[in-house]
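Late entry, written up from scratch paper. The run itself happened at the end of the previous shift, but nothing got recorded in the book at the time, so transcribing now.
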Amino acid sequence: MNATDSLLIPLTDAGCLSGLKHGALGARYRFWRDEDGVRHVFSVYPADAAPDYPDAVAIVARRTPAGSMAMWVGPSGEEARRMAQRLDADEIHIHVLGENAAPGLRRVLNTHRSVGCGAEPRARLPMVVRGCPVARRHAA
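Output as recorded:
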């Protein structure tokens, strides 16, 4: 488990685009791995300026010295911006699913919709979203 892994969100930070790390595009994109271990590229937006896409996964994230830490995951749009403000997040990372969406990302979004993970986080535990299942983690 890395310093930026969340026990409650089934996505782990997989770094930035290494070839563009120091260029203008380096901070614009970020990789995340789903619970199947598949790496996906996400566009990075300021927390208050993320666009609304009809079929996209949004990760509300906070920057740390070790990388990005996922604090909430769900559909993009108003709900993601509201959660970013509530959790004092730095960024929202968005991946548009498209026709051949990866099963791992589709599961994340479907779980959010079916379980109602849009609930407000608990006051004492801002990293917890009521009703969301805990992601399966395996020791390395």
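Residues 87 and 123 are 10 Å apart (CA to CA).
(Scratch paper discarded after transcription.)
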